[in-house]
Design brief:
globular, 3-stranded antiparallel beta sheet, alpha/beta, homodimer, 5-stranded mixed beta sheet, 6 helices, 184 residues
Chain lengths: 184, 184
């Protein structure tokens, strides 16, 4: 990832607090970060967000990028084609590995969240799958003036209005233009 | 085109003046519109920007979308696979039809512009061809919070940094986020 892409987020108070640091900016960017964590009762992510291992889990040593106490503090459903036992971490995070697809992962996450929100932790392929299925209630995108050059395209080939999404918020700042789209 | 996409532009003083109207906004948006017309000595555009006709020019009746006195006031080179004689319009606009590709169109436009700038009038396919060839010195993009759903993708598959482009300006406003990239 290009660091410049996340600069607006890294300097917020909420992000700094997640790193155990004090200080950081408040305001528009911080509000978006705070809101993204508020009221979340479960996460869903693709396996490439969980770790660099591809194919079968050869050993069970890898437990994510985040150390003993990941910043989730709730159940996290990891989409994978390769079964693996759940991992209970410190601080309330448990990683569950779902091999039965996005609908089943959402169902399990919904049960676990018990009325709270479910947050998609990426990556692009996972978000595209849920977008295509019309299952994303709200998507926040931060547009940053950086030319990445290559990578996965978040919206390529997705007819978002036809899928039921509409633009609901737009906040432009020198560091990032925030847009929020919602599904109706 | 979605009208909302061009709202920021339509309400500028410069755009209103082009329509023969007085009034309109000054400021950031107007500055970008003014700048886009300043010092231009020739235009290049794809034939779909010139008109709705596809294939051979069956008659010579169609002379563009803009009436007798188009807003160009200089030579305009139209990229097409189908030869046609040049058309001299009122107000200094002459449409030339180039069947020998983008390099030749640029060479002809450069000669005609005689040191002034050459502006690409679109569409997406034409801009992508010139971007890919590294021939665009400066590209202004206005990002507007509208979900279009489908259409041509301006940058899909283009590795802009590798092609020599870098981001040089970024002005974010409620109506549009303007970015400018330049070729080095």
């Amino acid at each position: 990832m290009a660091p410049a892409l996340h600069e607006w987020m890294i300097r917020t108070r909420t992000f700094q607090a997640l790193q155990g640091e004090s200080g950081g900016e408040t305001g528009v960017h911080d509000d978006f970060v705070t809101r993204s964590f508020a009221g979340v009762g479960a996460w869903i992510m693709g396996r490439n967000m969980f770790g660099p291992i591809r194919g079968p889990w050869n050993d069970e040593e890898w437990t994510g990028w985040w150390g003993e106490n990941p910043p989730y503090h709730c159940p996290v459903y990891v989409l994978t084609n390769h079964p693996r036992s759940s991992i209970e971490m410190e601080g309330g995070t448990t990683f569950h590995f779902v091999t039965s697809g996005i609908d089943d992962a959402l169902e399990q996450a919904t049960t676990a969240a018990d009325g709270a929100d479910i947050r998609l932790g990426g990556g692009v392929h996972t978000i595209r799958q849920y977008l295509s299925a019309g299952l994303v209630d709200e998507l926040h995108v931060a547009i940053v003036p950086v030319l990445l050059g290559s990578g996965e395209a978040l919206f390529a080939g997705l007819d978002l209005p036809r899928l039921g999404y509409r633009m609901s918020e737009h906040v432009a700042t020198p560091a990032a233009t925030h847009v929020v789209m919602t599904h109706s």
